[in-house]
Automatic annotation (TrEMBL):
The keyword Membrane applies. It holds the Pfam family Peptidase_M23. GO terms for molecular function: metalloendopeptidase activity. This is LysM domain-containing protein. It comes from the Bacteria. InterPro entries: Cell_wall_metabolism_enzyme, Dup_hybrid_motif, LysM, LysM_dom_sf, M23ase_b-sheet_dom. PANTHER family: MUREIN HYDROLASE ACTIVATOR ENVC, PEPTIDASE-RELATED. Keywords: Membrane, Transmembrane, Transmembrane helix. The chain crosses the membrane at residues 96-116.
Length: 402
């Protein structure tokens, strides 16, 4: 009996051991499976992260590439458009202005009734209100009223209808230009006569009108019309494709101040004045010539001084004793300039110099060298631009120089 019981107990113990072993195996298999799953999951997450990084980097690269291409196309088209407009600068200005004004007028016509309805207590039709100019003219009209030519500076050629009693010289005097200017612009000779009703073209200043041809430059035009290239540049209504090189566009119209028509007979001889040697003139209380050379441009409403050119580039002399109040570069076009205050209401200005010999606050005597003639700033050649101011007003230097 005891032996039987021992065997049964041993059998149960073996069974328990087997069951424990199976449970451990199952646990170990579960851990192995879990670690495999975790490993595969981590690999999948790493792959997904790498794929996302690759995707977004490629997407950004693609967007940048597309944007660059778009910007390049835009800049190319813009550059072509700007180049075309810049080359044609001045040719279509009047058309743009006229079309713009017409557009503004049309917009005003369309918007005026809408605006009128927005004012409270206003029920009147704006189109029924008489024009102030018509009311004024009806009440103040004078049958003896005559038309006068405006004194406003003209920026373009004017068409003038010849009146009874007009001659070429009277028309020239009326508009402040030379007789030759009228004759040359209208293809007339000194023996030609004009008749009432005839249309004459009148330039804004004495000189000639030139239409730019291929190969023309400021210098070649000035040489053709025996004029100063500086005068062409200084005339305020002449425009350039490039303000640094004074490049011109083919077909544009240029005013040549004081120009002479080639192989034309002048009604009055042209005289070029040569300045005396400034260094030999010593007169107390009198303005002396600041430099020797040729006067290439005179005083006018658009050029408030005189230009004295000399290829030798001599020293510039103080026209009278005084104190230097400016000695520096002027970005507005004067280049290197000096201004001297003479203490009696007068000031003198010297521009376009290549070197400056004085400093602000320095006292100079009449005839002292203040700089060297040059071609700095808005200049076409070696020359001196000289101005005299009296109580702040620019006057004609030829009226006081001796």
């Amino acid at each position: 009996m005891k032996k039987f019981n021992f065997k049964v107990h041993r059998k149960n113990k073996v069974t328990s051991l087997n069951e424990g072993t199976d449970l451990a195996k199952r646990r170990r298999l579960s851990l192995i499976r879990a670690s495999g799953i975790l490993r595969r999951l981590s690999i999948a997450m790493a792959t997904l992260y790498k794929d996302l990084i690759t995707f977004f980097s490629e997407l950004i690269r693609f967007l940048v590439k597309v944007s660059n291409r778009s910007f390049v196309r835009f800049e190319t088209i813009k550059g072509i458009f700007v180049t075309v407009l810049y080359k044609q600068r001045g040719r279509y200005a009047s058309r743009f202005i006229h079309s713009g004004m017409a557009g503004l007028a049309a917009l005003g016509v369309m918007v005026a009734p809408v605006i009128a309805q927005e004012f409270p207590g206003r029920s009147a039709n704006p189109w029924d209100i008489p024009s102030p100019s018509s009311v004024l003219s009806a009440s103040t009209q004078d049958p003896d009223t005559t038309t006068q030519i405006s004194d406003k500076v003209r920026d373009k050629t004017l068409n003038y209808t010849v009146q009874q009693g007009d001659t070429v010289s009277t028309v020239a005097n009326k508009f402040g230009v030379s007789t030759d200017t009228i004759l040359w612009q209208n293809n007339l000779s000194t023996t030609s006569s004009i008749k009432p009703g005839q249309i004459l073209e009148v330039l804004p200043v004495t000189g000639v009108l030139h239409t730019v041809q291929k190969g023309d430059t400021v210098y070649s035009i000035a040489k053709k019309y025996d004029a100063s290239p500086q005068a062409i540049v200084d005339f305020p209504y002449n425009t350039f494709v490039n303000d640094e090189t004074f490049e011109l566009a083919v077909g544009q119209v240029v005013i040549v101040p004081d120009g002479v028509k080639p192989s034309a007979t002048q009604s009055s001889p042209r005289i070029r004045q040569i300045t005396p040697d400034a260094g030999t003139v010593v007169a107390s209380g009198v303005f002396v010539w600041p430099a020797g050379g040729t006067i290439t441009q005179y005083y006018s409403w658009y050029h408030p001084g005189i230009d004295v050119a000399n290829r030798a580039a001599p020293n510039i002399l103080a026209a009278d004793s005084g104190t230097v109040i400016t000695s520096s570069w002027d970005p507005s076009g004067y280049g290197n300039k000096v201004i001297i205050d003479h203490g009696n209401g007068h000031q003198t200005l010297y521009a376009h110099m290549q070197r400056l010999y004085v400093v602000v606050g320095q006292s100079v005597a009449r005839g002292n060298a203040i700089g060297k003639m040059g071609s700095t700033g808005r200049s076409t050649g070696t020359h001196l631009h000289f101005e005299i101011l009296k109580n702040g007003v620019k006057i004609n230097p030829l009226g006081v120089l001796r």
